[in-house]
Design brief:
alpha/beta; Rossmann fold; four-stranded parallel sheet; 11 helices; 8 strands; 47% helix; Threonine dehydratase biosynthetic; lyase
Length: 273
């Protein structure tokens, strides 16, 4: 938002999201002293909504899924003269998300250890393509601490749009079903945007996980590791667990990217309470 060159008069912004991007947009607008309207689908859970509200954005509810919310946000921006920015088709957004890869690489350099694999959830492609770009640059500087880092995109079997699009080489619309990895279920349509084009050249492997595998990873994180995250984060660990034997002699990193969980809901899933 700070880098938008076509916004000299601080026009208000419009975007669409179900959680993470909404919080980032709201926080950025607050820091920049500008306004943002965030279009969110009708199904957004209360705890996510409250987190977004704390930064003071205008929130509009529209649509049954993220794709409908995005279409409405674009139309709203056009009619109001505000600036629409996409959560997954803006270079600077993808670069910001990808900085987590920079942090990982820097930490391994401090530890004086090599890194071979990075596992991350796929969702709409923004996070995984951002990570993939930085990992690709690391490959160009490959050495003893930076062998050819492989990026593993992990997808829920109930939400396969990006995985199917990567396999086909062009955008694919798929059926979606409810999933513990909530951000995954938001996306049944992948467009031929920056995220898809980058993911096609930077994601090395795709791992598909069932709901049972995601739940097992979620329980592992909460009970064994004391990492209180949501199902979207657990998706990355589920992918690693699924092929752990294959990479057992390599150093792997699992990206836990989201802590947007409802304590009561997660408690019932993890502990059966």
């Amino acid at each position: 938002m700070a880098r938008m060159k076509d916004n000299p008069t601080k026009k208000p912004f419009v975007t669409a999201s179900t959680g993470n991007h909404a919080m980032g947009a709201a926080l950025a607008a607050h820091a920049l002293g500008t306004k943002v309207t965030i279009v969110m689908p009708m199904f957004v859970e209360k705890h996510l909504l409250e987190k977004v509200k704390q930064y003071g954005p205008e929130i509009v509810h529209h649509g049954n899924d993220l794709n409908e919310a995005r279409a409405y946000a674009k139309d709203l921006a056009k009619k109001s003269g505000h600036i629409y920015f996409s959560p997954c088709d803006e270079f600077m957004v993808l670069a910001g998300l990808g900085t987590v890869c920079v942090e990982v690489l820097q930490q391994f350099e401090v530890l004086d250890k090599p890194i071979h694999n990075i596992f991350a959830p796929m969702s709409d492609g923004a996070l995984i393509s951002g990570i993939g770009c930085f990992a690709r640059d690391a490959k160009k500087q490959a050495g003893s601490l930076r062998p050819k880092v492989k990026v593993w995109g992990v997808t829920a079997i109930n939400s396969m749009a990006l995985a199917a699009s990567l396999s086909a080489g062009f955008p694919i619309e798929t059926e979606t079903s409810p999933t513990l990895a909530m951000s995954e279920s938001d996306n049944n349509i992948i467009r031929n945007g920056i995220d898809l084009r980058l993911a096609r050249t930077t994601v090395n492997h795709v791992v598909t996980c069932t709901e049972a595998e995601i739940l097992a990873a979620l329980r592992q994180l909460h009970i064994q590791e004391k990492q209180y995250v949501d199902g979207f984060s657990a998706l990355a660990l589920a992918g690693f667990n699924k092929i752990a034997e294959k990479v057992k002699h390599e150093t792997s990193t699992v990206i836990l990217c989201s802590g947007n969980y409802d304590r009561d809901k997660i408690g019932k899933l993890v502990y059966g309470a």
